[in-house]
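pls ignore typos typing on phone
glycyl-adenosine-5'-phosphate + seq
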Amino acid sequence: MAQVKQEETLKKIVSHAKEYGFVFPSSEIYDGLGAVYDYGQNGVELKNNIKRYWWSAMTLLHENIVGIDSAIFMHPTIWKASGHVDAFNDPLIDNRDSKKRYRADVLIEDEIAKFDEKIDKEVAKAAKRFGDSFDAELYKTTNPRVLEHAAKRDELHNRFKAAMEANDLAELKQIILDYGIVCPISGTKNWTDVRQFNLMFKTEMGSTADGSMNVYLRPETAQGIFVNFLNVQKTGRMRIPFGIAQIGKAFRNEIVARQFIFRMREFEQMEMQFFVRPGEELKWFAQWKEARLKWHKALGMGDEKYRFHDHDKLAHYANAATDIEFRMPFGFKEVEGIHSRTNFDLSQHEKYSGKKIQYFDPELNQSYTPYVIETSIGVDRMFLSILCSSYEEQALENGETRVVLHLPKQLAPVKACVMPLVRKDGLPDKAREIVNMLKFDYACQYDEKDSIGKRYRRQDAVGTPFCITVDHQTLEDNTVTIRHRDSMEQERVAIADLPAIIDKEVSFKELLKKLV
Ligand code: GAP
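k done
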């Protein structure tokens, strides 16, 4: 039941995003392209505001962090050095009857999640039976049926974890067969063997006459930072510790792309690599963990919607890693990763390029390969988390329902909509005057169509924090009514006071001040 409700919520958000110009399926008139999306007129504004918030927090607030914009195409040896050619794989399996392709690990993870759902159901049933005195935690540790489900879940989880760690593809298939996992489309267990599938997109550069070269579309922006480490350090005279930030597209040929813009084949990342002295990395890791959570929480979407998920299984080059997860309608999901990547990447590039990539530390009077703390967040996932958290169907006192996006006001695509009460008596001209006054600082709209109520609803649906109405009194005393999106309260204010009122709520300055 809860699962159905979650799916319905996501469906509503997806259709709202389309209806109001946030996100469209790519190539829609050709029936779309799997896991590729376009951002519409409101989506691009929201996305740009998210990027601006991140970029400002990194580069304006830290004098030792600078940005770059490296190319998407890079020398193919970079991906050999980084390990992506050999190890950026997902285990895939095909169903022979439906001809559908799945990630073997996801099929098993879904099976593990079913045990958790069974446990949740038992607990919900008991909560109903026992009422207020019910202690869910106690019930989970004592009820025999719950314990049985938990034991089965742990058994499967341990077997799965061991198979993944040993890269044992035959065992992954055996688990799928032993647990009777069927294809959701054909309903059969007619599975192929499990194979490794590299997620990088490959293409050719140069004409064949010159001899073409296989190149990859970058699967992360991070490597563009590593290979420019020396360029930036030297030209910017950067001293360790310092960071390099980058926002850009990344591409992954995801086998299973689900949940709207959560897992895409073309997406955008905001990554920052922070270079530190060897031995100091865990101190910096802890600092960046806190700093990044603070950045998320400052948006005011609710502290309870975030949690850390520390990794117990680390990549061979990492010595600490955590995810910041956000509560989406389909559960807590990773939005950002924070990784202590040791000196792996710089050392690998030194090895593969044959160029010395080291830093001379004047305080220590010695050269070393810096260690790296990485913060890596997906713009699209951040966008989805904001959309999910903001969407509300609100029952009003008059029996109507309004759909409202409670977007963090600084990130809203439109900050204010100015509306003449009627389309005559000089009110449109006065309203246009106000737009002309505000438009240099704030994204504004002018709307004179339909009733005021309908115009308010349109702005609520795209999350506009302020609606400003010009009426006959405005012509007499230069005052307007300003309506606040979340409370729907209206107040009469002087036109001259509008910039200050709006600025207080939408200014990036106030938001960024919360971070220092
Ligand atoms: N440089 C490290 C790195 O790329 P990652 O955990 O693979 O780490 C970082 O990706 C972030 O990029 C994720 O937390 C997520 O927000 C985003 N991301 C990764 N794959 C994605 C996909 N297929 N679609 C959308 N966002 C994705």
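The longest helix spans residues 104-130. The chain has a mean pLDDT of 95. more later
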